[in-house]
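Slide 14.
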Amino acid sequence: MSKLTRNKFHHINRESWIWKLYLSYDIFMMIIIFVNLFCLIGNAILMSHFAYWFFDLIHHTALINNYKQVLHPWVELTESWFICFLILELLIRWGIAILRHHYSKWFFFPFIHWYEVLAIFPQLRFLRLLRAGLIIYRLYQLGYRVIPHAWYQTIEFYYNVVMEEISDRVVINVLDGIKNELDHSHTHKKIIHSLVEHHKDLFAQTMAEMLQENLAVNLQEHHHRICKQMGEIVQTAITNTSEVHHLLRLFPIIGSKIEGQAQLIAKKLGENLTDSILSQLTQGSPKQPNIIYTEIATKMSNININNQSLEKLVESIVYESLESIQKQVKVKQWQQLLKATENKNTNI
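Slide 15: predicted structure.
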């Protein structure tokens, strides 16, 4: 029994008479359902043309005639009594559910136990087997191995196969419908615009966080090198400015010294200016991005979305997302599980 199942039932006192009563009742219902279905299946076979042909072939028609005259009416009578029992049992349990407030509304019971309601009708007798199966499953969860563990695993595996195939087909049909609607509908642009508008705030927040996490961190790492390079750029700009050079050369003695000092001052000025700018850009954290990045992201989120390139971008993202989901849904998980089990058994 799994840890989750143990946690689910750990609070139940298995020594109480109520517990024993519920357990006995479940076992009783499971047995009489199987007996009832066994009798009905046997009756259907013995009352068929095949049974008459077979017993005639082995020259024992008296046996089948005796069954038809003596036992068949008894099977029909017990089925009638069993249906009356199921109706009474369902009404009693419904009343108990109302008294003990098992459900938020009193009329929920027959909808939740729909298979029990339908199983009352003779044409839907097979649903009684579903109830018996659910009882077996509940007992198995409680630690009572009514059926061998290997049988339980096999049943669970094929149940998961059926449910996965059904759910996959539903999801694929829905995705195909969405793609078809986008291909042929004239309103898909409105949908795309609405999608972009709806996510503007989230886009701005994400953009600001990305700028903070990437740009700010990189600027912080290369802070010193950027300041030094900017200072050298300003120094070079002063050196390459011929007007400044000619002006300083008017001072024969101190002109060259002034020029040299001006270049150093310009370099230091460039470094200090860059350092101040970078200090502003590297402030903040991913949870509280820098106000500069926040404003940039907000401005970008408010751009005009009536743009053909933007529409194509969003369209491409939507289509590729749908195709990725569809591709993932088409993966048969049960096949992978079966292959893994086979490989494990082979290795053993």
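Speaker note: The chain is about 80% helix and 0% strand.
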